[in-house]
Amino acid sequence: MIRVLIADDQGMVRTGFTVFLSAQPDIEVVGEAADGREAVERSAELAPDVVLMDVRMPVMNGLEATRELLAQGGGAPKVLILTTFDLDDYVYEALRAGASGFLLKDASATQLAEAVRVVAAGEALIAPAITKRLITEFARLGGPRAASGRRLDELTDRESEVLSLVAQALSNQEIAEKLFVAEQTVKTHVGRVLTKLGLRDRAQAIVFAYETGLVRPGE
């Protein structure tokens, strides 16, 4: 079972998410929180696998709560950011803070459940509109951060190629088809990339690839 904590300042939203997700055979909603501070506290209590985190909440916003949650290191939950704003300024910083996914609240109930499963499995989940915003933000910031570029030397040519395709939001299956290899082979390469670079999941890999200049906006 995937244990989920729902953090949103709107009671009706929390109730709606709880009712739907609780009906899924593989998902259990273990608690709710009305603000970011409560989300951090309840997460420590309940040890969820995934936290559905609203961006704009009182007391502590979703970005600050995400940073605090993921600063705990090992054992921290995956964070799936939910927002009504596809051009929200928090997009870039939320992913840099370690959020594993970013989904608009107008997504269907089925998409929400699938997003929880994807994030729980360690994959990145970024809505197309959010991906465009993220790439625009990288372009605005003026290119790669040279200080972390040295770490790319630790990757083999194939691993660098796989990382660049991950950064384009391709799934393992799509990467396998593009490189004419087995999907399991791609999964192995992705795992090695994350381990070598000290990254939590594919969302962080996407950020890393853009920040180091391995992939550039517009390519």
Automatic annotation (TrEMBL):
PANTHER family: TRANSCRIPTIONAL REGULATORY PROTEIN NARL-RELATED, TWO-COMPONENT RESPONSE REGULATOR. Signal peptide: none annotated. Gene3D superfamilies: 3.40.50.2300. Residues 148-213 form the HTH luxR-type domain. GO terms for molecular function: DNA binding. Residues 3-120 form the Response regulatory domain. This is DNA-binding response regulator, NarL/FixJ family, contains REC and HTH domains. The modification 4-aspartylphosphate is found at D54. Keywords: DNA-binding, Phosphoprotein, Transcription, Transcription regulation. GO terms for biological process: phosphorelay signal transduction system; regulation of DNA-templated transcription. It comes from Nonomuraea solani.
